[in-house]
Amino acid sequence: MTTTRGRLAWGLIAAALATAFLPGAAQAFRGAGTTRIGPPLQPDPPPSVADMAVGVIDGVRTVHPRGPEVQIDGRWWLVLPGRTQVLRNGVLVDEKALAAGQRVRYLPASKTPGEMALGIVHVL
After folding, report:
1. What is the CATH architecture of 49-123?
2. How far apart are CA 111 and CA 76, in angstroms?
3. Which of 13, 71, 103, 120 could disulfide-link to 59, CB 3.0 to 4.6 Å?
4. How would you label 70-97 residue by residue, b for 16+ Cβ within 10 Å and e otherwise?
5. pLDDT (tens place) for every residue of the chain, 124 residues total
6. Is the pTM of this model over 0.70?
């Protein structure tokens, strides 16, 4: 017959072996009532219309190897196929639908200063 002290020793040995050799087992032995460190991860909120800039397409050129480029108010922007969403009346359209003289509402693809790519383009 084993004593309480013997059961406790074997339990501690089993817990030590499990946490050493099984990934994620340390969380199982952590116990209830412990809290997670740090804030919960939440996705970025979707962009609103207020975040978007408004401009006029001055020119379009298709010679760039990564995709077509559009000039909006004097700045050239990449339109990356598969990454840039071009919308007209709320419906996705092909990036070939962009033409000079169109008024657009646009949002850059990223906040990286060197990357001049568009994320969303709404043709107005």
Report:
1. Beta Barrel (2.40)
2. 16
3. 71
4. bbbeeeebbbbeeebbbeeeeeeeebee
5. 567 777 777 777 777 766 666 655 555 555 555 555 666 666 666 677 777 899 999 999 988 788 889 999 889 999 988 888 999 988 899 888 899 999 999 988 876 677 788 988 999 8
6. no
